[in-house]
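#struct-pred
JK: can someone run the complex with nickel (II) ion? inputs below
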Amino acid sequence: MLKNLRVILWALVAIAAVTVAAYVYLDRQNAVAIAPAAIGGPFKLAASSGDTVDSATLKGQPFAVFFGFTHCPDVCPTTLYEMSSALGKLGSEAKDLKVFFITVDPERDTTEFLKNYLTSFDPRIVGLRPSLEQLPEVAKTYRVLYEKVKTEDGDYTMNHTALVYLMDRQGRFFGTLDFEEKPEVRLAKLKRLLKEG
Ligand code: NI
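RT: done, structure tokens with the ligand placed:
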């Protein structure tokens, strides 16, 4: 029962996020000025590459961000697989596109662990590891929710928002990729993002 309630709650969170995204998108279509700070914001986080990624250095480059964790049984590996497949199809067209996978489970996901995990996916996907202090802040800027849930075996899993956020060359929110949407829809969105600006 509690589990069902959780699933419903997380579905509502996802629907709310998509609704916000849809309104922002509609606003864009109507050329209405939107608050540029609605989703996203500056971050400076440890990366799986061993460096630090500072969003300030991304000016002029579009990027995609999503939140997850390497122990995720389903949504995260699927999203990473779908993103890798889209990047493969875009080829050099997406050479400017940076993709960040921000862990919501920094306790288990060390940068080294993220690095090893991501070797199975497109090399343009970079893992970012916020500290436990940085995590709530960066999640808040992207309106991402996450929670630690104890499992019956005494371990834990993480519930989290499953949207991929697309940010344009000026670092402004551009739209989302949604979990398991059609590959051609995803590709079209990424092409629009890359053409912008
Ligand atoms: Ni996940």
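RT: quick notes.
Residues 2-29 form the longest helix (28 residues).
The CA atoms of residues 37 and 172 lie 7 Å apart.
JK: thanks, will look after standup
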